Amino acid sequence: MIYRDIPLIIPILAAGYVLTIYLLLMLAQRSTKITRLGQWRIPSEESRTTLH
User: Fold this and answer.
1) Rounded distance between C-alpha atoms, residue 41 and residue 35, angstroms
2) How many helices (H) and strands (E) does the chain have?
3) Alpha carbons 4 and 10: distance in angstroms, whole number
4) Are 40 and 34 in contact (CB under 8 A)?
5) What is the DSSP letter of 2?
6) What pLDDT sits at residue 50?
7) What letter does residue 39 receive in the DSSP assignment?
8) Residue 46: enclosing H or E segment and its boundaries?
9) Tens-digit pLDDT profile for residues 4-32
10) Is 31 left (phi over 0), alpha (psi -120 to 50) or beta?
């Protein structure tokens, strides 16, 4: 690696870090919404038959 390429790599790594944190926060927010609504439960047979 040539040393003059390092100033270019720093913003790329910083952008990747920020994007990773953003995606993890969105995933955490989505998972808290799902568990709050109780969508992890398997629907019972009665609710399956009423959907059709």
Assistant:
1) 9
2) 2, 0
3) 11
4) yes
5) -
6) 57
7) T
8) helix 45-51
9) 777 888 899 999 999 999 999 999 998 88
10) alpha
d(CA 13, CA 6): 10
Token pair listed for 18: 């920020």
Structure-block tokens of residue 37: 């609504």
> DSSP label at 51?
H
Structure token digits, residue 36: 């709050």
Encoded tokens for 30: 């989505």
Quote the CA–CA distance of 10 and 16 in Å, as a whole number.
10
Return the higher-pLDDT residue of 3 and 15: 15
